Write a sequence for this structure.
């Protein structure tokens, strides 16, 4: 029973390039959350998606960042024209039901560590 | 505000008990969670407690909740070197996203 799968584990990009981070939720989970963790800091919520819908993107920068969770395939977090400040670990979590059911714990992937040269 | 607060560092000797504390601000929080993050890994769900409970025990882990003071603690009995990690407290409220604390870095000394 595979957990949340994220790839790649490590991603190196030069300034100005695009970064695409993928997340496959646990089997049976249709709610996905993306978080960013800067070194020595906690997790900051970015975006919450259900299949084909963005439910809450209040934590995601308005420019350069976008997220999707298509009907088929993994959720994608896309960062265009990356800058040094985008260097961080990006974690994906999934849950069976959404935030209306607060008894649903979120299960995390191992993250993608993004480094910008 | 919606901050969840934790002390950032804790050191204990192997075999001793560790107590990691967390305070939250929203009395409508329904579930409170403890996650463990080892170096280079994601967050592993350790345990969680419903807000109408005072205590929950699971093997070496004991969670205590003081709802009046909005204070949550995680006690690890007989702490081992493998318990060295960052421990995150998180709260959830219906219709809202999880709010995580900054994490407590636990160091277990031999």
């Amino acid at each position: 029973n595979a957990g949340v799968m994220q790839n790649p584990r490590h991603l190196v990009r030069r300034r100005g390039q695009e970064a695409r981070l993928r997340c496959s939720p646990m089997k049976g989970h249709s709610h996905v959350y993306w978080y960013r963790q800067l070194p020595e800091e906690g997790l900051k919520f970015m975006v919450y998606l259900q299949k084909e819908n963005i439910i809450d993107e209040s934590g995601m920068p308005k420019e350069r960042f976008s997220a999707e969770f298509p009907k088929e395939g993994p959720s994608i977090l896309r960062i265009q024209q990356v800058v040094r400040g985008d260097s961080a670990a990006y974690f994906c979590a999934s849950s069976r039901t959404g935030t209306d059911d607060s008894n649903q714990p979120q299960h995390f992937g191992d993250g993608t560590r993004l480094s910008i040269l | 505000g919606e901050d969840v607060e934790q002390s950032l560092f804790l050191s204990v000797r192997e075999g001793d008990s560790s107590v990691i504390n967390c305070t939250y601000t929203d009395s409508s929080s329904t579930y409170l969670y403890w996650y463990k993050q080892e170096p280079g890994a994601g967050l592993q769900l350790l345990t969680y407690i419903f807000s109408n409970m005072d205590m929950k025990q699971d093997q070496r882990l004991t969670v205590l909740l003081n709802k009046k003071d909005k204070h949550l603690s995680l006690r690890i009995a007989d702490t081992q070197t493998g318990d060295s990690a960052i421990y995150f407290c998180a709260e959830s409220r219906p219709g809202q996203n999880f709010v995580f604390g900054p994490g407590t870095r636990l160091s277990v000394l031999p």
In short: The two ends of chain B are 39 Å apart (CA to CA). The mean pLDDT of chain B is 91.
